Amino acid sequence: MKIFNSIKELKVLLASARSEGKTIGLVPTMGALHEGHASLVRRCIDENDVTVVSIFLNPTQFNDKSDLDRYPRTLEADCELLSSLGATVAFAPSVAEIYPEPDTRTFSYPPTDTVMEGAYRPGHFNGVCQIVSKLFDYVEPDRAYFGEKDYQQIAVIRRMVESLSYNIDIVPCPVVREESGLALSSRNALLTAEERKTAAAIYRTLERSRAFASTHSVAETQEYVVHAINAVDGLEVQYYNIVDGDTLADIKDWNDAKSVVGCITVFCGGTPIRLIDHIRYC
Question: Is 37 a catalytic residue?
Answer without folding.
Answer: yes
